[in-house]
Amino acid sequence: MPRKVELRRRLNTFDVTSLVVGSIIGADIYVAAALGARLVGPVSLMLWIVAGLMATVIALCFSYCATVLPRVGGPYSYVSEVGGPFKGFIVGWSLFLAEWVSLAVFPVAFTQYFLFFLPRLDYPSQTLLKGVFITIVFATNVFGVKAAGRFNDFLTVGKLGPLVLLTVAGLLFIGWNPGAAFSNFQPFMKGDPSSFGLALVLIFWAYAGFELSTLPADEIQRPEKTIPRAIGVGMLIVIIFYLTTNFAIIGVVDQSVLGSSSAPLLTAGVKIFGFSSSLQLIMSLIIGAGALVSISGADESGTLGTSRLAYAMSADGLLPRIFSKLHKSFRTPYIGLALICSTAFIASAIGTLTELISASVFLLSFAYLATSASTILLIRKHPKSSMRLRGKKIVPILGMAFSFMLMTQVGLYQILTSCILLLTGIPIYVFFSPKHELHEVKEALLSRERYLTRAYEQGERFLAHPIRHLKWRIYRARRIEKAWQVTSRR
Q1: Which of 288, 367, 349, 358 lies closest to 96, judged by CA?
Q2: What is the pLDDT of residue 149?
Q3: Contacts for 349 with CB less than 8 Å, ≥ 6 apart
Q4: Structure confidence by residue, pLDDT tens digits, 254-292
Q5: Rounded to 5 degrees, what angle do the CA atoms 146, 151, 156 make?
Q6: What is residue 487's three-state secondary structure?
Q7: Which of 198, 251, 328, 464 could be cross-linked to 181 through a Cys-Cys bond (beta carbons 3.0 to 4.6 Å apart)?
Q8: Phi and psi at residue 220, in whole multiples of 5°?
Q9: What is the mean pLDDT of residues 224-235?
């Protein structure tokens, strides 16, 4: 039964922090764990911190935009305000492409975890597995199957529990075998400068998503202070979570083994419990199930988000109307979903994990660069709204610099491919922009109720879900009213 989400009060720092964590941490850690370590060694732990700090700065640019321009629509709205509708469209198009490319990452990652158990799986079988994966994701989104209530609690435990178990067991293993762990950190650094650049790009991908955590400022208490503080606290939680997980994996697994593993989390689990074949099997099943469930859930929610973005752009007259055509029974954009899923399958069949992530980061960084530049122009355009913002001069400049740096670290092939995809947006804009704006659909899509519903769902993702339960316990003890009120529609 559909649910209705409302705000009882404006969101405080704790509320917004859970949105930040929920927008970032998902199945990405199952995909990106140890990718950097394979390229540059244990020094990649430093890159997890660097990438987190870069993401924090860029996220602050988004928060400044949301404070100065309290309007739904994200980068599309910010860039359109200062650069006009065409530039806004190109930024929205780049985000759509980045999310679409990310959808192709998860079938590849899903298959790699299967290869841990079935290493002799040939290429046609791997391609078939990716096709089955995408088909299930498509069907789930079309039929609108959603986990809620206690089932969502169960799913969260299934996704997050294996990671927590692995990390704790890994830290205990390191403490019990310090000599072996020390040898696994040797050599601490390897690779050339280009390897460091690629490692940074792959690691940064795990932090992407923070652009989805910015609610309009009028929904938040003292937004000029609350939003930056929540971003800082939320990003700190994310950095610690990622850093601890990767530290445990690197300390447990020998570098030569780690470099050839298709599923480093599973490899670490098997190594930790090497003293018992039964425990090895149990740990493999727990981590494998957690990875497969998490990756499937991430691609399902990612597909939903990408279809929503395509739906919004179609409603705005910037994409063909078929992207906003709804199924008569399920009220889902089934044609748009079919196009998105089928093209994502093709990309997953021809692209590697590294290539797909690199292309996604390039496209995301393009949108981040435009948003950071728009921050400067918005602050100049609305000086009264930005009077209380701290670091409003240096933060956008750093955001632009970090975004540009990420774009330059992507391989030439991915840069050319991404630029070609971006250029295809020009004829799409020219052909559709003046003609097919669907005013009623656009109004419903950008309504406050719909936006709040998306924000609430974001706070139920992965690590944000237990944080939300902890927060509610604290609120109950302090007699603080919950911010969210969720009721079933009749």
Answers
A1: 367
A2: 44
A3: 127, 130
A4: 888 888 887 888 888 888 887 788 887 888 888 877 777
A5: 95
A6: strand
A7: 251
A8: -125, 140
A9: 86
Q: Residue 12 — φ and ψ, nearest 5°?
A: -100, -175
What token pair was written down for 55?
């993401």
Q: Half-sphere exposure (CA, 13 Å, Cβ side) for 284?
A: 18
Q: 229: which 2 tokens?
A: 């503080």
Give the integer Cα–Cα distance in Å for 376 and 407. 20
In sequence order, the β-bridge partners of residue 5 are: 486
Burial of 147 (0-12, 13-18, 19+ CB in 10 A): middle
* Rounded-to-integer distance, Cα 165 and Cα 159, Å: 11
Proportion of the chain above pLDDT 90, given as a percent: 26
> Mean pLDDT, to the nearest integer, of 78-90?
86
Distance CA 238, CA 25 (A): 7
Q: Which amino acid is at 199?
A: A
DSSP 355-417: HHHHHHHHHHHHHHHHHHHHHHHHHHH-TTTTTT-TTTTHHHHHHHHHHHHHHHTS-HHHHHH
Report how far residue 79's alpha carbon sits from residue 372's, in angstroms, rounded to the nearest whole number: 9
| Structure-token pair, residue 211 | 């652009």
Tell me how far apart the alpha carbons of residues 79 and 141 are, in angstroms, rounded to a whole number: 30
Report CA-CA distances (Å) from 426 to 90, 194, 318, 420. 8, 32, 10, 10
CB pairs under 8 A, 24+ apart, for 348-351?
A: 348/104, 348/105, 348/107, 348/108, 348/130, 348/134, 349/127, 349/130, 351/104, 351/108
**pTM of the predicted model, to two decimals?**
0.87
Evaluate whether 264 touches 34 at the Cβ level (below 8 Å): yes
Give the whole-number percent of the chain exceeding pLDDT 70: 84
Predicted local distance difference test score (pLDDT) of residue 462: 73
Directed axis angle between helix 85-117 and helix 353-381, to 10°? 150
Q: What pLDDT sits at residue 89?
A: 83
Q: Let me know how long the chain is.
A: 490
Here the tokens at position 159 are 């996704």
Q: Which residue has the tokens 């099943």?
A: 285
With beta carbons less than 8 A apart as the criterion, state whether 46 and 364 touch: no
Over residues 99-123, mean pLDDT:
85
